[in-house]
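Open question from group meeting: does this chain pack into something compact, or does most of it stay loose? Before anyone orders reagents, we agreed to write out a predicted structure and look at it together. Recording both the input and the output here so the notebook holds the full record.
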Amino acid sequence: MGKEKNPRRVADNEAIAVSRMLRTSPQKLNLVAAMIRNKPVEKALADLTFSKRRIAEDVKKTLQSAIANAENNHGLDVDELVVAEAWVGKNLVMKRGRPRARGRFGKIMKPFSQVTIKVRQVEEEQI
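Structure tokens returned:
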């Protein structure tokens, strides 16, 4: 009688997590995402923990969410997880301004972005 379950958007050995409305530019966020791509999740978590970049804390939360999704929702082994993909997208841009000399108006752009992290279970020999 009810609706059918939605089909999975990722493979059986993968899990995904998305964070939206992160208050940083996509360019800066992509530097952090590039830091964790194709690494085992333990190494990626350690890199994010000791990163000096402010947004690394939010990316770490997203990675932990992807790990929890893999473990609880899909029954994957946490010790064999690797960050398969981490991609960044644009979100809204708040436009602010500041009065400048001679009646001009200085634009101030406050960009938001989003990050998507996909973890994949691989065997120990492939890591």
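Observations to bring back to the group:
The CA atoms of residues 86 and 117 lie 4 Å apart.
The chain has a mean pLDDT of 94.
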